[in-house]
Each structure stands twice: as structure tokens, then as C-alpha cells.
Amino acid sequence: MIRNLTEHDKEHLQEALVKSGQKVTPQREAVFTVLLAERDHPTVDEVFNRAREVMPGLSLATVYNCLETFVGCGLVRQVNHERESTRYCPNLAPHAHFRDKETGQVHDIELPPDVMKSLRSILPPGFDSEVIEISFLGRAQAKDSHSN
Amino acid sequence: MIRNLTEHDKEHLQEALVKSGQKVTPQREAVFTVLLAERDHPTVDEVFNRAREVMPGLSLATVYNCLETFVGCGLVRQVNHERESTRYCPNLAPHAHFRDKETGQVHDIELPPDVMKSLRSILPPGFDSEVIEISFLGRAQAKDSHSN
DNA sequence: CTTGCGGATTAGACTCATTCTAATTGAGTT
DNA sequence: AACTCAATTAGAATGAGTCTAATCCGCAAG
To answer: What residues form DSSP beta bridges with A97?
Structure first.
């Protein structure tokens, strides 16, 4: 179910960690592997349970720590909907999130540069934004179960 | 500090409540008054404290109930940022939210119809969205302290 | 070697927004 | 005056996330 990291992904992880003064540890590799294996925006608990299959001693606190570290060095994004549990997403390309009202599934929606630009343009002078979050809520005709 | 509802706002409240089979109660009037008095996107706790000045016996559970009811009949919107406490906003026009990283203040950003349309247009076929949430995070040159 | 250092990991306690529960109130009826 | 049914209430319960203090582990210095 959970494959090992490809050489490429391993380098990606290592580079990002080292660049922000963090170490590569077995726990971090395991958590990162889980994130890449199934890109369905898992919650911390889901990551925890999946990672335990591969590293049974892993603790929940460590999963929180790893994910926080990854966010800190730009390896993954947090995804929040209302006040539900935070989900995690290794897709780094700019994208919005679509949440299916029925299934709860989260899908990535590609965000073309011109839409980004038009969004930025609605900010009145004096407002300077680093992060823009866009989330849709609705229903999706099931097609591919995951989100990319 | 907290003025009474204008006749107009009172009718607005009454109409929305009755239309969805709810009753007008003193508690609901008090909470709605608080929301309209200062449009700074208060948290439940802030609403609670402000409303207590006017109705000391009011309970926190009731504030939660009232706000939930208001959301249900379209009188107010919930505003969430990451996993912080939910805030409430009586601005019904389509708008985005800008959250100041430093002060935590939330400002409303008007959302022109063509931007809404271009956003809707990025959804692949099969995706049908009712609600779009857009939130900016950044720094705002203080100007008017409230949002609206 | 083996000792010491500092970051990473861990279990479990803690926080705090929100929800739930069960009892009470109160307005409008019969 | 008794009924009814939603709204209100206080306090308990939930649960995601954070904090704490102890342990672990890789690595560099002696």
C-alpha cells in the first residue's frame, strides 16, 4: 500500500529540510511517504494511522511535529474547511480546494495565473496579501476519487 | 455603546426568522443588535460579552444557538481563518475577507461579479459549487479600524 | 571508545472552542 | 388552569490541537 519514497522525492524532502536547518529523520520520512502515497488530503489522525502501519512506535505528537515542520519549510500546505480537522496537501502548485458536501472529499482545483491576478487586483490600496485561500463547497460528480 | 435596533433592522430580523419558522426572542434581538452595532467580525465570546452588558442573564449556549439560527436563515455569515475561533459577519453582500497578520483584524473586501464569475469558471465539469470562500492573509495599512 | 550536547521523539496532561444533555422557562393554546 | 413545544440555561462532555517533561539518538570532542 505504502511504497517507499522515490529517489527524487527523497531528495526533495532532504533538500527542503536541510535548507531550513532541520534534520532528516526516519519519522519524517515515514510521514512524508504517507503524504505522497495517497494524495487525498488526510487529517493528522489519518496520517498517523497510515504511518503506524509502517512504523508502529510512531506517536501522534510526532506526526503533529513533522507536519508542522513540513509546513514551515514549504513542503506541504494546510487545508482548512470551517473548523474541521486540518488536512494536509503535498501539492505545491497554486490551487484552490473543492470540498464535496456529501462525501467530505477534498479535490484540488487548478488556479490559472490570470485568476490569481484578478483576485489580487480587488484588494484596495494599502492591503498587501501573501496568502490567498480559495475554497469551494458543493457537490462533485465522482470521477477520480482522489484529487491529484 | 450598543444602540437598539432600528425599525428597519428589526423588521429584517423578524422577517428572516419567521420565514424559516423561528421565533423572535429577546435573546435573539440582543445578539443581533450586538452584531449590527460593531461590524468587526466578533467571535462568539466577544458577542457574548457585549450582549451581556445589555442582558446580563444571557448564557453562552444561547449565543451559540442564536448565531447558528442566524446563519441558518441567512442573516449572518460565519468567517473562519485556519482553526481560529469562528467569527460572525452581518454583511450579506458577496465579499472576501482579509485578515491582518499583525492585528488579527478582519476586513471585508468587495467581490465584483466578474471576479466571482471567473472563479466559478475554473471549476472542471462535474463540479457544482454553492459557496465560495476567499480569504487573504497579509498586512493592511490601518485606515478605518472596522471592516464593512 | 565513552562522554556530552542538542535536537527529535514520546506519552500523557492540558487547553479551549464547540457541542451535547437534561432540566427549566415562558409564550401562546385549549 | 393545565398543556405544549420551542427556546433558554448551566454544566458536562468532546475532540483537535498544544504543551511539558522525560527519554532517545546521532554525532562531535576528548
So the answer is: A108, A135
**Domains with residue ranges and CATH for chain A:** 7-79 (1.10.10.10), 93-138 (3.30.1490)
- pLDDT tens figures, B67-121: 999 999 999 999 999 999 999 999 999 999 999 998 999 999 999 999 999 999 9
Nearest residue (Cα to C1') for C12? A61
Task: Confirm or reject contact between A144 and chain B (CB < 8 A).
Answer: no
- In sequence order, the β-bridge partners of residue B138 are A129, B100
CA dihedral A140, A142, A143, A146 (to 10 degrees): 90
Residue nearest to nucleotide D17 (CA to C1'): A64
Q: What interface predicted TM-score (ipTM) does this complex get?
A: 0.89
**Mutation choice for B interface testing from A129, A137, A144, A145 by most B CBs within 10 A:** A129
Give the separation between CA B3 and CA A17, rounded to whole angstroms.
Answer: 55
Å from A91 (CA) to C10 (C1')? 29
Q: Report the nucleotide nearest the CA of residue B44, measured to C1'.
A: C17
**Mind listing the pLDDT tens digit for each residue in A62-85?**
999 999 999 999 999 999 999 999
